[in-house]
Amino acid sequence: MLPQALQDAIDALGALPGVGPRTAERYAYYLFRNSAKLSHTIIQALENLHSMVKFCPVTFALIDTKDQVSPLYSDPSRDKTTILVVEEPLDIFAIEQTKQFHGAYHVLGGAISPIDGITPDQLHIKELISRIESDQATEIIIATNPSVEGESTALLLQKMLSEKYPTLQITRLARGLPLGVDLSYADQITLSAALENRTKL
Question: Is residue 102 domain-shared with residue 142, that is, in the same domain?
């Protein structure tokens, strides 16, 4: 039988997504065997996570608590009339690394998933509509994930926005087969997107 403190650490680490019982045991034992300084550093980082990070009230991106809005939104060099819509805040960082997009972002806060109880009214769609009007947006780029939930969310957004704003340009990120992927391993959504977005040689 394990000491209670060690078991508590295993249980806490096991609550993280993707961390199974054996992995949680290894993590907890590693922290025990290592210097207590490492554990204290992790504890401090986790405390700061809740006290020093918040959601931007406009874009719903992650920002420092000292900031009023996202620096990517307040930056005068960014084009606020072009809004790229993503599911989660971390999707923004992936796109920013490309250094190819110079517009603004909007985070939905998830994707429609009836199984998980996530309905359209739980996403930041109303706030997106408000931004389209206040920022006089001319283009919405839908960049939801290529999953069943992401596709459903994208279709709903496209329908809602095209009906409300007939002149608004609504686009989606090009989708298809990534390099190095065998056709037999590609999922149906990826293959369908690859066919739809095929290019002339």
Answer: yes
Question: Is 181 within the bounds of a domain?
Answer: no
Going by pLDDT thresholds of 50, 70 and 90, the confidence category of residue 197 is: confident
The whole domain housing 31 covers 4-51
Classify residue 78 as left (phi > 0), alpha (psi -120 to 50) or beta: beta
Kindly report whether the global pTM for this prediction surpasses the value 0.85.
no
Count: domains in the chain: 2
Other CB atoms closer than 10 Å to residue 124's CB: what's the count?
Answer: 18
Q: CA nearest 131: which of 108, 111, 154, 106?
A: 106
- Give whole-number Cα distances, 187 to 18, 25, 72, 86, 91, in Å: 22, 34, 34, 21, 21
What is the C-alpha separation between 124 and 165, in angstroms, rounded? 18
User: Do the domain assignments include residue 136?
Assistant: yes
At 201, list the tokens.
Answer: 């040689």
